[in-house]
Amino acid sequence: MKTQPRKSQKKSLAQLLFFILLAIVLLLGSLNIAKAKGYLLPSQPEPLVVDGKVNLDVLTLDQKIAQMVVVTYVPDVMPVWKNLQMGGIYLYSLGSESYFREVIERIQNNMTIPFLITADAEGCFSPFQNFWHFAYNSEIHTIGEAFEKGYREGGLMHELGFNLNFAPVVDLEDQIWKCRSFPGNSTEISELAYSYVLGLQSQGIMATAKHYPGKTLVGRDPHESLASAEIEAVDLDPYEFLINKGGVNSIMVSHIITTGEVYSEDVPSDVSQAVIHDLKRRYPGLIISDEIHMLGLRNFYDSLDELYLAVFKAGNDIVLNFDKDPNEIHHMIQVIKEAVERGEMSEEEIDASVTKILEAKGFEVVVD
C-alpha cells in the first residue's frame, strides 16, 4: 500500500529535475546567444558634451579608440555599436529612400556623439542605384558635369542622413571596374575630382580622395589578393592638387605595396608608417584606411592581432573594420588599448586622431 506514493514521489522528482535541467539549458543557450551578439560586452560611460564641447580628458581610452573605427551596419548589433560608441557606421544598399531615412534616424537616435554615417557612392555602382541613377565617373567629361554629379549625390546623401562619402576615386586608370575613374590625363582628372568634391561638400557631405598613393585599380584587385605597384609622380598629381587647394576632407590609403615615388617599405601602404607619416606632414585632414579584411591586407599577416596593431601604429585616423562580430571589434579595441598601456603606442597620437574626428563631427575639443 506504500509503494504507490514512493513511485509518485520519484516521478515528481524526475519531472522537477527535468525542468531544472531544461531551464539550465535554456539559460545557457540564451547566454551564448547574448554573448555571440555582443550583449554582454561592457558599455562605455556617457560622454560629457557641454555647449558643443567635448573634453578629451574625460573620454576613456576605449572610447577614444572606438571613435577611430567605422563598422558596418548590422541591425541586431546596433545596440552594441551604440554601447561601444563606435566612430562610424558603413551602410550598403537598403533598397529605398524611406528605409535609408528610417534606419539612419534609428542609428543616430540618443547618440551624444553621433556616428559618421558613411557609404561608397564612388563612381560606379552605389548603394542608391535601386532608386536613383548617377552618371559613372567614366562618363564625366567637364568640370560642370563633375560639380553637378557631386552636388546631386551630396544632396541626396545629406537628405538621407549621411555625412561622409568614400569618394571620389582619383586613380588615373580603372582596369578592374572600368567606370570608377574620371577620364583624361592627370591634370584633367585632378580638376574633375576637385569639382566633384566642391559639389559634394557644398551639400554638407565630407569627401574622400582615394586610393592613395594610386594604381589601386590596375593589376591585381586588392579585394582578392596581395597587390603591388610602382608609383610614378603623375599618380600623385590628383592628391597634390587637392591638398594644395585645401579642398578635400579626407584621404583613403590603399593596401597596395608600393615602390617608386612612394615607398611603402615592403608592407601595404595603409600599414606603412613611412607612407602615413609623410602624408600627414603635407595634409591636415583625416587619413582613412581601406577596409582591413580585404585580402590585399588580411593575407599579409599571420593573425588579426598583428594586423590591428599595424594599421593603428601606422597612424591612420580612421580604420574601416567591417567584421560583423561585435566581440571581435571589442577585442580589437582591447588589443590597441593594451598596446597604448604598455607604451608600444602613443596616446597622444590617438588623441590627435580623435580630435580630428570630433572636429569633423562638429564639436570643439577641449582638454583639462
Could you walk me through the main structural features you see in this protein, from its secondary elements to its overall organization?
The protein has 368 residues and is an alpha/beta fold. The chain folds into 2 domains: 1-36; 44-366, Alpha-Beta Barrel (TIM Barrel), CATH 3.20.20. Helix content is 43%, strand content 12%. The protein is built from 12 helices and 13 strands. It has helices at residues 3-36, 61-67, 78-84, 97-108, 143-160, 186-201, 237-245, 273-282, 295-298, 304-313, 326-341, 347-360, and strands at residues 49-50, 53-55, 69-72, 88-90, 116-119, 164-165, 208-212, 228-231, 250-253, 257-260, 286-289, 319-320, 364-366. A 5-stranded parallel β-sheet has the order 6-5-4-3-12. Strands 1-2-13 form a 3-stranded mixed β-sheet. Strand 5 (116-119), helix 5 (143-160) and strand 6 form a beta-alpha-beta unit. Helix 10 (304-313) crosses helix 11 (326-341). The longest helix is centred in the first third of the chain and has 34 residues, at 3-36. It is globular and about 95 Å long.
Coarse morphology: globular
The main β sheet shows up as: 5 strands, parallel
CATH-defined architecture of the largest domain: Alpha-Beta Barrel
Percent of residues in helical segments? Answer: 40-55%
Based on DSSP secondary structure assignment, what is the total number of beta strands? 13
CATH domain class of the largest domain: Alpha Beta
Reading side by side through the largest sheet, how are the strands ordered?
6-5-4-3-12
- Rg calc: 24 Å
* CATH domain topology of the largest domain: TIM Barrel
Mean pLDDT: 93
Q: Secondary-structure element order, as H and E?
A: HEEHEHEHEHEHEEHEEHEHHEHHE
Fourth CATH level, the homologous superfamily of the largest domain: Glycoside hydrolase, family 3, N-terminal domain
How far do the termini sit from each other? 84 Å
- Number of discrete domains: 2
Percentage of residues in strands: 5-15%
**Helical region count?**
12
Low-confidence stretches: none
